[in-house]
Amino acid sequence: MNSFLKTLAGQKMPIPPIWMMRQAGRYLKEYRDVRESTSDFISFCLDPEKASNVTIQPITRFGFDAAIIFSDILMVPWALERNVRFKPNHGPMLDPLDDAALLDEALLDDVAQKLAPVADAIGRTRSLLREDTALIGFAGAPWTVLTYMLEGGSSKDFNISRQMLWNDPAGFDKIMQIVTQATIEFLSLQAQAGADALMLFDSWASAVPSWHRDAIVNKPAARIIAALRARGITQPVIGFPKGIGEGILAYADQVGVNALGLDHGMDIRWAHKHLPANLPVQGNLDPISLISGSDAMVANIDEILGVFADRPHIFNLGHGITPATPIANVTKMISHVRQTH
């Protein structure tokens, strides 16, 4: 068992394991070269050889303790036939779902088959990685995935999603149930293919009204983990409810995750004080600090390492690395984390 998995099991390591969200991405020339060889992003995600190739690239270059399979949280709505496509310089676009009746529950029967190439990429990648490098599978949490489906893409205020949440709770619940089940199928597929750990990204948890947080963030995530365990899937699960603030305490208490990802907006001293002492945490350097690589970034790294010195901790960013990040600064961050101990 490598240091990443030992940390998820509750062990405090002398040197915290390190990886980065979105570590296989546009900041790497080798990634851009592979990406340019495929016409559209969905086809890229569904090409096991290319997905495996770019998953391994940051491991080859930086020696991270974990790889995360190259995929996307919108693979679930793609499998649910929401016409997911990616427009250059715009981002994801979907056919907006304005009526719950338009989402057919029968589509769940084909989710595993449609997403089988992701499982193939995981199997291929696991066979190529060294045993001391973990492989992470992932999915978007239901609320975050659902917002893309309702809004037809990204949103600043999630007005359509929140209106449906308040005004059509029955319709909202139907969509939520289908997306939750599809997510269970997707994560099960990845675990069975050889992923060593799983991560649930609730990137837009901050947009959920606090009144609805339990029903929309916590309970669906808890249902997913309970369903995985009922299927005999034992891989640890990292939950990342980005921007949830004080709600992270109830999330930790109710969802059943093995570790918590902390975003860069989280007060880590508060989190360390109030979260269960044995609960592993992951994070939470601001990814923008990596663009300058300044002394302030190094000081923030030291603060993070110091606060979590007596807790199982995986060093990571508070969100995904940005395309403008200089590779030299990533190397500087890794070296500092590993040489500090």
Secondary-structure blueprint:
Elements: H1 3-8, H2 29-35, H3 41-45, H4 48-62, E1 66-68, H5 75-79, E2 85-87, E3 91-93, H6 111-114, H7 116-128, E4 134-140, H8 142-151, H9 159-167, H10 169-193, E5 197-202, H11 213-230, E6 237-241, H12 248-254, E7 259-261, H13 268-274, E8 281-285, H14 289-292, H15 295-307, E9 313-317, H16 327-339
Parallel strand pairs: 1-4, 4-5, 5-6, 6-7, 7-8, 8-9
Antiparallel strand pairs: 2-3
Helix pairs in contact: 2-4, 4-7, 7-10, 8-10, 9-10, 10-11
Low-confidence stretches: none
Rounded mean pLDDT is 97
Note the total helix count: 16
Biggest sheet descriptor: 7 strands, parallel
Between the first and last Cα atoms, what is the distance in angstroms? 21 Å
Would you list the SSEs in sequence order as H and E? Answer: HHHHEHEEHHEHHHEHEHEHEHHEH
**How do the strands line up in the largest sheet?**
1-4-5-6-7-8-9
How does this model look, in words?
Helices cover 47% and strands 12% of the residues. By secondary structure, the chain is of the alpha/beta class. Strands 1-4-5-6-7-8-9 form a seven-stranded parallel sheet. Strands 2-3 form a two-stranded antiparallel ribbon. Strand 7, helix 13 and strand 8 form a beta-alpha-beta unit. Helix 7 (116-128) packs parallel to helix 10 (169-193), helix 9 (159-167) packs across helix 10 and helix 10 (169-193) packs parallel to helix 11 (213-230). It is globular, with a radius of gyration of 19 Å. The protein starts with a helix and ends with a helix. The relative contact order is 0.14.
Label this structure with key terms.
single chain, 341 residues, alpha/beta, seven-stranded parallel β-sheet, two-stranded antiparallel ribbon, 16 helices, 12% strand, globular
